[in-house]
């Protein structure tokens, strides 16, 4: 296999990968954002047990 043929195959592979990633990035971004928000909400719920609820009186 010559270097020219190998280069063409690599170019096709990289172009194919770029197209596939370009099509799925909204899904990946939305999934990551949703999981991040869920983890943050869960962390806040778990910590809420230790938070004191009340008001501060000024003197």
Structural class: mainly alpha
Note the run of SSEs as H and E.
H
Q: Which consecutive residue ranges, at least 5 long each, have pLDDT under 50?
A: none
Percent of residues in helices: over 70%
How many strand units? 0
Q: How far is the N terminus from the C terminus?
A: 85 Å
Q: Which descriptor suits the 3D outline? A: rod-shaped
Function: Component of the MICOS complex, a large protein complex of the mitochondrial inner membrane that plays crucial roles in the maintenance of crista junctions, inner membrane architecture, and formation of contact sites to the outer membrane.
Family: Belongs to the MICOS complex subunit Mic10 family.
InterPro entries: Mic10
Membrane topology: Single-pass membrane protein
How would you summarize what this structure contains?
This protein is mostly helical and 59 residues long. It has one helix at residues 3-47.
Structural key phrases:
membrane, mainly alpha, mitochondrion inner membrane, 59 residues, Mic10, rod-shaped, transmembrane
Q: Can you describe what's shown?
A:
With 59 residues, the chain is mainly alpha-helical. The chain contains 1 helix and no strands. It has a domain at 1-33. It has one helix at 3-47. The radius of gyration is 25 Å and the shape is rod-shaped. The N and C termini lie far apart (85 Å). The model has no long low-confidence stretch (mean pLDDT 84).
């Amino acid at each position: 296999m010559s270097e020219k043929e190998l280069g063409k195959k690599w170019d096709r592979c990289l172009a194919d990968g770029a197209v596939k990633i370009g099509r799925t990035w909204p899904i990946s971004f939305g999934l990551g954002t949703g999981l991040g928000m869920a983890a943050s909400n869960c962390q806040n719920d778990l910590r809420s047990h230790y938070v004191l609820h009340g008001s501060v009186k000024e003197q």
